[in-house]
Amino acid sequence: MSRVDFAYGAVHRLRMACGTAARHVAAGRRLLVYCTDERRLQRFDALLWEFDPTSFIPHALADDPLADQADVILVPDAASLDRIPSLHWLLNLDLDCPPGAERFERILEIVSGHEADIQAARRRWTQYQQAGHDVRGHRLPADHPAAGNHRRT
Q: Which residue has the higher pLDDT, 150 or 110?
């Protein structure tokens, strides 16, 4: 089964996801990012372009011909996720658990302080546990750049 890590207390979920993607790329790991919400995935894609003006996070949509060369692959639906060989690491930006979660060594979840985000994360936590995954929670320290009391996702 997979290990699922929830990081909660993020001020801005998508900005923290960009930081997570950047750390994985810097460590030489490729990352799948799953999200069926087209607007959210587009916002994340745009943020990857502007996240750090001094660097570039190579990324592509799953159906892009260059996806095989990208360090971060944006996956918009379950069918695309099924077609992609597992890269071991998946960042879930969806409100539901990714299908076939057991295929991944690690699943990363980022939770903001927004109530709807918290409730959806609690549902995912329960579903992961019921499926037998190793689920762990990590509260972001108050001094972490992505933590805070703001209610944005």
A: 110
